[in-house]
Task: structure prediction
Amino acid sequence: MTTHGFDARRFKAIERSGFNRIAARYAQGAAMRSALADALIAAAGLAPGQRVLDLASGPGLLAREVARRVQPEGWVLASDIAEGMLAEGRGRAQDELPPAICARLSYAAADGEQLCLCDASVDRVLAGLALFMFPHPERALRECHRVLRPGGRIALSVWGARATVPLISHAQDCITRLLPQPRVARPSVFRFGDPGALETALSAAGFARIHVAPVRWTSHFVDADAYWQAFLDLAGGAAESLAQLPAATQAQLRTAIAHDLQAHHDPQHGGYSMTSQALVATARV
Ligand SMILES: C[S@@+](CC[C@H](N)C(=O)[O-])C[C@H]1O[C@@H](n2cnc3c(N)ncnc32)[C@H](O)[C@@H]1O
Result:
């Protein structure tokens, strides 16, 4: 497998299509990662009156908590390449939040590598599980640095090292074993799992006072299908590619997943449990 021939535009189109496909299910499944969302919100240092960008916002679950904290004068822009994710978030917000909070939320379908904001126009940038999605993460970080005002802060989360995220690596191992290798490799979602790599990327984009900390949480799955569905509800590009496979191949994958999951059997609660690790980073302009 090679990264030669990698087509960033095609990659983004597949991610956009995949995350549009899974928007509702992603929003439902996000509760499983509430510990990570809470850690990111706490790290952001939010206060009333701030202007905030929630980059690669998905269904805007971080953005709505930001809106609550920056009211009554502040605002938050939820931005994502997948317009279906934003529409899902907007619909949920309108159904579930008071109008005064909804009024603090704006939405923009846009590529995070080319931000639709002026220089020095926001106080905070949040980017939850996003940096590894970009074919050119250095561009996205430079854009974040550009739109933050002097003294502004970025708070972001990324997946930890591969061995610490069975939630994803377990499914990937089965896929690698059963399916032909793709001709061109996707960028790894674990490429910032080493705190040093994350610090280097933030520093190269001009950020200072960089701090990186691990966050761990445990997920429980009643059966192997629940695990597989949780993986598909999280990974837009993979969901998009796997949905194109014949039903028999998809069934083979489910069987292999069930077999391999035995290592995570939870004798106390039944089903399967696994602990995942992410990194939360903050840095200043
Ligand atoms: C794993 S989800 C994270 C969503 C949300 N931030 C969270 O913490 O749950 C990754 C998001 O990145 C978005 N995304 C992927 N590539 C992008 C790009 N080039 N520009 C902006 N958003 C992108 C996807 O559409 C998806 O909503």
Q: What stands out?
A: The domain at 8-163+184-220+274-284 is CATH 3.40.50.150 (Rossmann fold). The pocket of S-adenosylmethionine is lined by residues 12, 15, 19, 30, 56-58, 61-62, 80-82, 85, 111-113, 128-130, 133-134, 236 (CB under 6 Å). The mean pLDDT is 93. The chain has one domain: 8-163+184-220+274-284.
